[in-house]
Structure formats: structure tokens, C-alpha cells
Specification:
Layout lengths: L4 E2 L9 H10 L18 H18 L5 E6 L2 H13 L5 E6 L2 H10 L5 E7 L23 E4 L1 E2 L4 E2 L11 E4 L16 E5 L10 E6 L16 H6 L9 H16 L2 H21 L5 E2 L11 E6 L5 H10 L2 E2 L10 E4 L6 H18 L1
């Protein structure tokens, strides 16, 4: 049987060797006689797993000591509410950079908690196909924080830079490009991301937050939503997503074995370049709406010139074991998500199919 390549935007492909390790340890973790799914989160076995996962993540990303790492539940969407609950700190306003679907949803949720939600910059004028030039951003120096989405999963728009916000804390939804490239964590007040793209299975959300931003939650904030309480309890105020943390820990070790984030980034650049070249050299058969400097390395959207061929494309791709290629219902067309775990062979198989399809239907 030829290999199956899963281009889903999330839950997404995991490294095969990690899945094999999970399979091997499923019934008996390291001679404990228990599956990780059966362990008490307070037991020494799982406490070791969680501590090692955090240690490895800190090493991979170079997370400074004055930052807390939290393993939480609720997905990144829950952070749309938790961030303002924790970081408003009595200030009335929040600034946002609006680059598409997920940043708009984050703004919508923030309006429930902040007196003022300001759009510091937006790319809506050109259909969310680019990142606004930083020189034109209008940042309120009194804002509680500035929020941006570093990679818009739906639209395929990715920031090629980390914004400079001065004294205003920088908050980033990094869900779909987390661990895809080196990042200077010290430039952020808070980073968050759902696990189901580059980290592990759905159900886990990682928050990396600077310590001085903790402890000033908005009145009425639920106990579970207080970062300070979660940090003081080592993310175990209640039962955490134990199995997802375990798998994430295995992924962190896999990243280390690949050579770390610099090596991961180079491989992601190679994969994305190959796929975009296939689109750009198709003589218009395929098109990508995103302006070139802002094209995502993780999520590649493209459309067929003749939309009547969409269903045939998806069906024939599936027959070649190229799965989950259909675009999001909001955007239509196609979308190939090529996260860290997608091998170069998968992109080669997809581009080969795209060329064959264009030849037979062009």
C-alpha cells in the first residue's frame, strides 16, 4: 500500500515515529503496568512526564526563566477570553492587528471584557491577503496589550516578522505555526496555541506568559481561568489533559532529534517553496490569493481556475492517498497544511498529482 499523506489543518498529522512510540507504550508506560491514560495526574509517573515535557519545551524555544509555561484545556479559542480576563489589569483598551478569520474572532470575544477594542491595523481592504506594514500601525501606548495572529490557518497569511510594540505587551495566537521556526520568546508578553497542529492531539493548549503579567485578573474571573492559580498549581489545579501532554512531550523530543527549530524551519521553507512553485508555474490553472511576502509555510490555500473541477480534484487526490485537501468552508478552494510532521515526500506526492491533474484537465 502506498503511503497516506494527511494535509488536514487540524487535528493534523503527527510524526510517525511518535505514533509508533505511543503504540509501544500504550498498555505499559516504562514498566509501570499502566497506560498514561490511566495514571493519576498526581502520581510520580505522570508528574515526571509533565515536568520533562516542560523542560524540553523550554529548551527547544529558549524560554526565559521569568516566563511560566501552562498546559491548559479549552483550545486556543478559550484563550480569546482568558487573555483579556488576565491581562487587562484595570486598563480599558486592547489593540488588535486584524489579518483574518481568527484575529476577528479573538476581537469579538475581547469586546465582552474590554471597554475599548481598537484595530491598530487591518488587511481587510485587500481581502486579508497580506500583513499590514508595521510602520502604519496605530498602537495606543496605554493599551493593555496588542494581540496578533502569527499565522491565519484559513487564509494562509503568515507574519514574516515579530512586531515591535515598545512598552505595550505583545500577545500572539501562535496556534498554527507554533514550533515551526525559532522565536525570541522574550519579545512577547504572552504566547498561546492549540496543540492539534504542530504539538500533539487536540485537547491541549499551551500558554507561555511573563510572570509580571500574572495576578491581576478581572473581577469575576473563574478560578480555572486565572493564569496565576494555574501557574502556582503547575497546571494541575484540576486534572489536566494528561494523555495530550504525554504525546506533546514525545513531539518535543522528536523536534530535538530533528536538530531543533532551526533545522525544522529550513525543512518547512523547502516544503512550502516546492508547493508554491507548483501553483505559480501552472499557467493559471492554480492560483494562490496570498501576496508572496506573506504566504504561510504551514497552510497553503489555492484555487483551481475552473471551480467545476474542485470535486474531481478532491476525489482523484484521495484516490492517490492525498487526504484532507479541501479548503475551509469559509474560503472554499483547496488548502494543503504542511506542518512539521508532513514529510517532504508528501509534498512531492501532492505537487506531482497537481501537475498530472492540470495536464489531464487543462
Amino acid at each position: 500500500m502506498s503511503p497516506v499523506f494527511n494535509f488536514s489543518a487540524g487535528p493534523a498529522v503527527l510524526p510517525r515515529e511518535v505514533l509508533l512510540e505511543v503504540q509501544k507504550e500504550m498498555l505499559d508506560w516504562h514498566g509501570s503496568g499502566m497506560s498514561v491514560m490511566e495514571m493519576s495526574h498526581r502520581g510520580r509517573e505522570f508528574m515526571h512526564i509533565a515536568a520533562e515535557a516542560e523542560e524540553d519545551l523550554r529548551a527547544i524555544m529558549g524560554i526565559p526563566k521569568n516566563y511560566k509555561v501552562l498546559f491548559l484545556q479549552g483550545g486556543a479559542t478559550t484563550q480569546f477570553a482568558m487573555v483579556p480576563m488576565n491581562l487587562l489589569r484595570g486598563r480599558g483598551g486592547i489593540d488588535f492587528v486584524d489579518t483574518g478569520h481568527w484575529s476577528k474572532l479573538a476581537m469579538k470575544e475581547a469586546r465582552k471584557f474590554a471597554d475599548t477594542v481598537r484595530v491598530a491595523a487591518s488587511s481587510e481592504d485587500r481581502g486579508y491577503t497580506y500583513v499590514p506594514a508595521e510602520a502604519n500601525w496605530q498602537i495606543d501606548p496605554k493599551a493593555a496589550y496588542l494581540h496578533y495572529t502569527s499565522n491565519e490557518t484559513l487564509g494562509g497569511v503568515e507574519f514574516p516578522f515579530v512586531p515591535n510594540t515598545g512598552e505595550v505587551p505583545l500577545v500572539c495566537d501562535m496556534s498554527s505555526n507554533f514550533l515551526s521556526r525559532p522565536v525570541d520568546v522574550s519579545r512577547f508578553g504572552l504566547i498561546y496555541g492549540g496543540a492539534q497542529k504542530n504539538i500533539g492531539p487536540a485537547g491541549l493548549t499551551i500558554v507561555i506568559v511573563r510572570e509580571d503579567l500574572l495576578g491581576q485578573v478581572a473581577p469575576g474571573t473563574p478560578t480555572m481561568f486565572d493564569y496565576k492559580i494555574q501557574a502556582e498549581g503547575d497546571s494541575m489545579y484540576n486534572t489536566p489533559p494528561t494523555f495530550a501532554i504525554y504525546v506533546a512531550g514525545l513531539v518535543f523530543k522528536w523536534v530535538q532529534r530533528q536538530g531543533g527549530l532551526k533545522a525544522i524551519e529550513q525543512r518547512n521553507i523547502e516544503k512550502a517553496a516546492m508547493l508554491y512553485e507548483s501553483v505559480d508555474t501552472s499557467n493559471g490553472f492554480y492560483t494562490c490569493p496570498v501576496e508572496k511576502p506573506f504566504r504561510s509555510r504551514m497552510n497553503v490555500p489555492f484555487k483551481l481556475a475552473d471551480e467545476n473541477l474542485d470535486e474531481s480534484f478532491i476525489k482523484e487526490a484521495s484516490a492517490r492517498n492525498l487526504l484532507q485537501i479541501k479548503g475551509h468552508r469559509v474560503t472554499g478552494g483547496m488548502r494543503a497544511s504542511i506542518y512539521n510532521a508532513m514529510p517532504l515526500e508528501g509534498v512531492k506526492a501532492l505537487t506531482g498529482f497537481m501537475q498530472d491533474f492540470a495536464k489531464h484537465h487543462g
